[in-house]
Write a structure and sequence with these properties.
The chain is α+β, with helices and mostly antiparallel strands. It has a single domain, classed as Alpha-Beta Plaits. Helix content is 24%, strand content 40%. It has a five-stranded mixed β-sheet. Strand 2 (32-37) and strand 3 form a beta hairpin.
Length: 90
């Protein structure tokens, strides 16, 4: 059974390759979904897949790539879509 999460990552998360690193990590974990920058300086993502890889991605989001300084990750569970083929930068 797939789980889908919606997350907003705050802190110094833009201009530090957060989206590219999230793309790499999500694909490595076999997840589908998307990641994008928001105008307020946060990064938004949705990811879908088994519980364990979702938990691993969320744990990774707590620190992100080396240049990031994450101050918070707000997460909500949302209905799984089951229609995406890959994880992408949106």
């Amino acid at each position: 059974m797939a789980r889908r999460i919606h997350a907003i990552v705050s802190g110094r998360v833009q201009g530090v390759s957060f989206r590219a690193a999230t793309l790499f990590e999500a694909r490595r974990l076999g997840l589908v979904g998307w990641v994008r920058n928001l105008a307020d300086g946060t990064v938004e993502l949705e990811a879908e897949g088994p519980d364990e890889p979702i938990a691993a991605l969320l744990a990774w989001c707590e620190h992100g790539p080396p240049a990031a300084r994450v101050t918070g990750v707000a997460v909500d569970d949302v209905p799984a879509l089951g229609r995406e083929a890959a994880f992408q930068i949106s």
